Amino acid sequence: MVMAAGFPDNRIATDLAFSGSGLEKTYQTGETQVHALRGVDLAVPRGEMLVLLGPSGSGKSTLLNIIGGLDRPTSGKLFYRNTELTAFDDRELTRYRRAEVGFIFQFYNLIPSLTAEENVRLVTDIADDPMDPAEALALVGLAERRGHYPAQLSGGEQQRVAVARAVAKRPGVLLCDEPTGALDSSTGVRVLETLERAHNELGTTVIIITHNVGIAAMAHRVMHFRDGQIAKIEVNEHPVEPGKISW
Ligand SMILES: Nc1ncnc2c1ncn2[C@@H]1O[C@H](COP(=O)(O)OP(=O)(O)OP(=O)(O)O)[C@@H](O)[C@H]1O
Fold this sequence. Notes:
Blueprint: E1 16-29, E2 32-45, E3 49-53, H1 60-67, E4 75-80, E5 83-84, H2 90-100, E6 101-104, H3 116-124, H4 133-139, H5 155-167, E7 173-177, H6 185-202, E8 205-209, E9 221-226, E10 229-235
Helix pairs in contact: 3-4, 3-5, 4-5, 5-6
The chain binds adenosine-5'-triphosphate.
Pfam family, one: ABC_tran
Family: Belongs to the ABC transporter superfamily. Macrolide exporter (TC 3.A.1.122) family.
GO cellular component, one term: plasma membrane
């Protein structure tokens, strides 16, 4: 059984999306060493909505990248469900990423020469059990805009296409690094609503990095990072709907 500080109840390890212990990440650049993670233990229940908060440079993106199989820790162990990610070779890590992880970044990274639907189809064409791209776009409220190119869509709409692209393969986990960082409050709320909808309808575990304390209100739990460590974990007994958040 894996337990960790702040773990909300007594669910057993098989109900965990992620469990990690002693995660450290050291970047060596020339003579300089940066300790981005300094011994992180974590347990993330399946289906949780988790927010990571903390000052710039505190290690949030480093952890998210390790969770998403984009990077490896210098030491420590990380499990996805019952499988040890830190024992994977590069091919296994790529397979894990393709099958299980949807990424959403601050900038939408859509391909400008493809329509919204074609952008989503890029992912569904190589997924095992994908949604129809039109269904994924309907989930984010953009069914009618599926033939539009990114330049014909607002920033918030483009981010919703990015959410559709991320959820269309029915990933086990959605990892979001500043998903509303480039958006104003009301547009950002619509993006958060689409994330919550994907979370509710697909049961996806969602981890969101943000600098925006207001967004933490929609999470089940909030992990506060400081100097490469989890400084504090808050449990939200009553997460609020994104529509009630503003900044
Ligand atoms: N590839 C890299 N090479 C060297 N140092 C790095 C690298 N990536 C991150 N770092 C350093 O590791 C530390 C943690 O960075 P990280 O991006 O995880 O922080 P963060 O909390 O996500 O910050 P932000 O909120 O600004 O995105 C920082 O000091 C950063 O400069």
